[in-house]
Amino acid sequence: MKTLKTAFILAAVAILLAASCEKDPIPVPTPDPEDDPVASDSTYREKWEGRYWPENGGNGRIRMFIQDGTDSLMTMSSNVAPAVNSDSLLVRSDGSFEYVGSHNHEIVGYFYAEDSLYVHVENLQYDKSFRCVRIPDYVPAPNH
After folding, report:
1. What values do phi and psi take at 91, rounded to 5?
2. Can you name the residues that pair with 118 across neighbouring β-strands?
């Protein structure tokens, strides 16, 4: 019985000590601008700007340009059949993009593997996808 009383007293003291200890408040996480490239820097698009060769595209090219004065838009121009030009591609920091214009077509896609591009173009006349590889800067642009 004496050990039961001692155990009860020790348990009560432990509970009182635990309840009286002040706990540190849980810190509220604040977003770090360095963790989100869109919030801190709009230059993430620079690595995707350039010319791309579509698979089975012959002499066709797709060009992706940063839209000056914006933080997330790029311009796409293409002479691959069907030729598509768009100046309102919303590009996210993960490489995905979509057309945000008002024309009757849809453009979605993504950049991948640091030098590749996938584009899907759809409107009333056609539904076409392109897989492309980046043209190195040392390859000159055609003169025609």
Report:
1. -110, 125
2. 110, 131
- The pTM for the full model equals 0.64
Q: Are 95 and 111 in contact (CB under 8 A)?
A: yes
Q: Give pLDDT tens digits for 18-36.
A: 666 555 555 555 555 555 4
d(CA 71, CA 93): 11
Answer yes or no: are the C-beta atoms of 90 and 73 closer than 8 Å: yes
Nearest in space to 111 (alpha carbons), one of 133, 84, 87, 141? 133
Give residues with Cβ within 8 angstroms of 72, minimum separation 6. 38, 42, 45, 90, 91, 92
The sign of the CA dihedral 133, 134, 138, 141 is positive
Instruction: Say what the alpha-carbon torsion angle 5, 7, 13, 14 is, to the nearest 10 degrees.
Output: -160
Task: Return mean pLDDT, the chain.
Answer: 77
